[in-house]
Design brief:
The protein has 568 residues and is an alpha+beta fold. It folds into 3 domains: 15-213 and 416-454, Bira Bifunctional Protein, Domain 2 (BirA Bifunctional Protein, domain 2); 253-382, YbaK/aminoacyl-tRNA synthetase-associated domain (YbaK protein, Alpha-Beta Complex), CATH 3.90.960.10; 471-567, Rossmann fold (3-Layer(aba) Sandwich), CATH 3.40.50.800. The chain is built from 16 helices and 31 strands. Strands 3, 7, 8, 9, 10, 11, 12, 21 and 24 form a 9-stranded mixed beta sheet that branches. Helix 1 packs across helix 12 (445-455), helix 2 packs antiparallel against helix 6 (167-187) and helix 2 (44-63) crosses helix 12 (445-455). The chain is globular. Bound molecules: zinc ion.
Length: 568
């Protein structure tokens, strides 16, 4: 490709609307343009990258028995009503009506339509398993689309759905996708980590996320320094510290703490640490209130709490609201005496504490020397806290550390959630009707492109991993005199299927180099008068900044060699 013909309108300035690096660089490098909030046009450079990612995804899906198909983007409301998700999905779903007032949506995901397609055609266990996938635009009406392609309202996804005869079959499909996803992100040249994840709104009972490691990542990952345990912070657990308390158990004691309401104030007043207190927080569940007990220095993990209470609409209730509802004094609430008034859940750690301080449910009073197991009545204990860096791994004696990541893929075991709702049955060997056992597996294709940039850039621009770079070689001439030689190199490389962008523009070398750094093509070959005098070209690798000189007649061989080395 000649750069003079390439439609890649670069920008000198960083657009103010772009908050994160990948968004800024894609706008500046002429890869994308915004059409509406969270919706983008992919210009040729971006599309070349996306096609490469899609090709890698296809090859890995096909290798594991996937069959590609294409489902409609516009989906009838009836299917979503049948699965019960038409109402649950809420405002994130783009809904529309046709001229006959029939309701449709723009597919945010495709479980309903694929399950219906399969159930209409599959009768027998002999037709299973099936692994069907597509690569297509998805739509989610995010309340606040931001971060460019990271959280758009239209985005490209690969979604595969597996249909098996039983749990063992699902396990095979799940493991196949786990292998495929590791291969995909490895082949894309990315540093990533599979982590345990919460299966959230999609449902099901096992899930892993694939995280591209990057500072700008929205997700926090906790991983063990000794074993392969790694989990999204939403899901992560750490070992409950067994108390080494061996002092004498005392009677609880009511103590005046006038005007001291917050954990900080109470700790200062009583000269104790936050871990010697138990906080009582209140949550609304949509169908009432619950009290949650947690150690004073811990944070409630609302995802875990939502799973335990089976509530998707949890919200923290203010002390003032609780005062109105239950008559409890603001700043002095505690679990003692709450039993019977409200459902009480406690974090596992609380049950291990001794001699703690809690509110006494009387204005200006706290209790000291409280023994949770002895003094708290009617409490159900679960893991409800956020695990944190530095704590002990749940599986071994190692410790947890944190990293930030960008979620680019997720694999789920759905089980029979959708086959049940949509009656996707088959006849087994004995002629018995059974539900298909399903899994679903997504790769955020456009997000992977953005994540690749978040992981690979510097102050001058992008540093593409070669496997997904828009071109492999950026060929630059210092002045128009070298164009005939450059064109010969260009032809030689192109004949070997090496993708070359030849900067044939009549620009100063400085401008060309600046654009080259911004676009981030991995191998930059410069043909200039000095090198030519010695029969050489200057080569600079974008990833490392290393420079070499290659004899003109070895350019093709050395380029090949470099590409092959990167692919290993
Ligand atoms: Zn471990």
């Amino acid at each position: 490709m000649l750069q003079s013909k390439l439609f890649a309108p670069t920008l000198r300035e960083t657009p103010a609307e772009a908050e994160i690096v990948s968004h800024q660089l894609m706008l500046r490098a002429g890869m994308i343009r915004k059409s509406a909030a969270g919706m983008y046009t992919y210009l040729p450079l971006a599309w070349r990258v996306l096609r490469k990612i899609m090709q890698i995804v296809r090859e890995e899906m096909d290798r594991e028995g996937g069959q590609e198909l294409a489902l409609p983007i516009v989906q009838p409301a009836e299917l979503w009503k049948e699965s019960g998700r038409w109402d649950v999905y809420g405002d994130e779903m783009f809904r529309l009506e046709d001229r006959h007032h029939r309701q449709f949506c723009l597919g945010p995901t495709h479980e309903e339509i694929i399950t219906t397609t399969v159930k209409n055609e599959v009768r027998s266990y002999r037709d299973l398993p099936l692994r069907l996938y597509q690569i297509q635009n998805k739509y989610r009406d995010e309340i606040r689309p931001r971060f460019g392609l990271m959280r758009g309202r239209e985005f490209i996804m690969k979604d595969l759905y597996s249909f098996d005869v039983d749990e063992a079959g699902l396990e095979d499909s799940y493991q196949a996708m786990y292998r495929a996803y590791n291969n995909i992100f490895k082949r894309c040249g990315l540093k990533f980590r599979p982590v345990e994840a919460d299966s959230g709104a999609i449902g099901g009972n096992a899930s892993q996320e694939f995280m591209v490691l990057a500072e700008a990542g929205e997700a926090v990952i906790l991983y063990c320094d000794q074993c392969d345990y790694a989990a999204n912070a939403e899901k992560a657990v750490s070992q409950v510290q067994v108390s080494d308390f061996n002092g004498a158990v005392k009677e609880k004691e009511l103590v005046a703490t006038p005007g001291h309401k917050t954990i900080d104030e109470v700790c200062r007043f009583l000269n104790i640490q936050a871990e010697q207190t138990v906080k009582t927080l209140f949550y609304g569940t949509g169908s009432g209130y619950i009290a949650v007990l947690i150690q004073g220095n811990d944070q409630v993990n609302e995802i875990k709490l939502g799973n335990v209470t089976n509530s998707k609409k949890l919200y923290l209730v203010s002390p003032e609201e609780i005062h109105e509802v239950l008559g409890l004094p603001v700043g002095y609430v505690g679990p003692i005496g709450l039993d019977g008034q409200i459902k009480i859940l406690g974090d596992n750690r609380v049950a291990n504490l001794h001699q703690v301080v809690v509110g006494a449910n009387q204005e200006d009073y706290h209790y000291l020397q409280v023994e949770p197991v002895r003094d708290f009545v009617g409490v159900d204990y679960y893991d409800l806290r956020m695990a944190a860096s530095g704590e002990q791994c749940p599986r071994c004696s190692g410790h947890l550390h944190d990293l930030r990541g960008i979620e680019v893929g997720q694999i789920f075991k759905l089980g029979t959630k959708y086959s049940k709702a949509l009656s996707a049955n088959f006849l087994d060997e004995k002629g018995q009707s059974r539900l298909m056992v399903m899994g679903c597996y997504g790769v955020g294709v456009s997000r992977t492109m953005a994540a690749a940039i978040e992981q690979n850039y510097d102050g001058n621009g992008i540093k593409w991993p070669i496997a997904i770079a828009p071109f492999q070689v950026h060929l630059i001439t210092v002045s128009p005199e070298q164009l005939p030689v450059a064109k010969e190199i260009y032809e030689n490389l192109s004949r070997q299927n090496i993708e070359v962008l030849l900067d044939d523009r009549d620009e100063r070398p400085g401008v060309k180099f600046k654009d080259a750094d911004l676009m981030g093509i991995p191998i930059r070959i410069t043909v200039g008068p000095k090198g030519l005098a010695q029969g050489e070209a200057e080569v600079k690798f974008r990833a490392t900044g290393n420079e070499e000189r290659w004899p003109l007649d070895q350019i093709v061989a050395k380029t090949r060699e470099y590409i092959e080395k990167c692919e290993q």
